[in-house]
Write a structure and sequence with these properties.
Elements: H1 5-8, E1 14-19, H2 23-27, H3 29-39, E2 46-51, H4 53-57
Parallel strand pairs: 1-2
């Protein structure tokens, strides 16, 4: 899941999104947060967003993350 250093250059924040219908997507948040911490030494604002709630509400998928 590594992204090149140039991708992080001069960023001012990070938005990390996960799929609430896939538990692995939620578990991978830790990997992404560690990747950001490793590449960016300064404190960086981070926002974590749960995605696909609409699929759960419409009954198309089951929620895997509460």
């Amino acid at each position: 899941m590594s992204i090149t250093r140039s991708y992080y250059r001069r960023c001012h924040g990070a938005i990390i999104m996960f799929d609430i219908t896939e538990r692995k997507s939620f578990e991978d948040l830790k990997v992404w947060l560690n990747e950001i911490k490793k590449e960016i030494k300064d404190k960086l604002p981070k926002m974590i967003i749960a995605n696909k709630i609409d699929l759960v509400e419409s009954g198309q998928k089951k929620r895997a993350v509460s």
